[in-house]
Specification:
single chain, alpha+beta, 7-stranded antiparallel sheet, 5-stranded mixed sheet, 14 strands, globular
Length: 203
């Protein structure tokens, strides 16, 4: 039987170390060689797009695992219940939701069994943090590494913000990092989703 580790931590907004920003995006290794795509194609590949919080995470000794996620806002599609599970197999190109209390934008597809998976491997789970000196600025996703495989093709989505991080040289606690803005993403999701649904109705 595999050993299972259950992750529990505070649900307040975390202060991220610079290395953890990369880990939070969980982009695949260079060996994974995933094809580059766009944010628009990611939206179109999704059955459900939502903002959610990880409330429980279990990781086995072979790196497989499952997270329980509570949806906070649904931007497109639907989910059958307030708390749902998102599994991963442990493959190096897969993202993992192991940080309990962290909020994400999740781009999901439904399986034949009405379970959910990443809409596109390696780029479907976007951690959310507050920008600015006291993390009270706009909610953003740091995209360190993510831009290697995902083009921000929506106008205004990509920017640069000061993000509070640990582990910087003495006297510094912020770094200027590329980010994607939640307040730009959400209306784009709804617009693209509406156009897709309208196209389906006319076909």
């Amino acid at each position: 039987m595999n050993n299972v580790t259950t992750c529990r931590c505070s649900t307040r907004r975390p202060i991220l170390a610079l290395s953890l920003l990369v880990m939070a995006i969980s982009t695949p290794s260079a060996d994974a060689a995933l094809a580059r795509s766009t944010v628009t194609s990611l939206i179109l590949a999704s059955d459900t797009i939502l903002r959610g919080r990880v409330v429980r995470a279990e990781v086995t000794a072979d790196a497989t695992g499952v997270a329980s996620v509570e949806w906070l806002q649904v931007y497109a599609g639907w989910v059958p219940q307030r708390i749902f599970t998102v599994p991963w197999s442990g493959d190096p190109e897969e993202q993992r939701l192991t940080k309990v209390g962290r909020e994400y934008v999740l781009f999901l597809r439904r399986t034949d069994r009405d379970e959910v998976r990443a809409a596109q491997i390696g780029r479907s789970y976007w951690p959310l943090i507050g920008a600015g000196k006291y993390s009270h600025g706009p909610l953003v996703t740091p995209v360190v590494g993510l831009l290697d495989i995902l083009e921000a093709d929506i106008p205004g989505l990509l920017g640069t913000e000061q993000i509070r991080v640990d582990g910087l040289p003495l006297g510094k606690d912020h770094a200027s990092l590329p980010v994607m803005y939640l307040h730009v993403l959400v209306p784009a999701v709804k617009s693209i989703w509406h156009e897709r649904q309208a196209t389906k109705l006319h076909n």
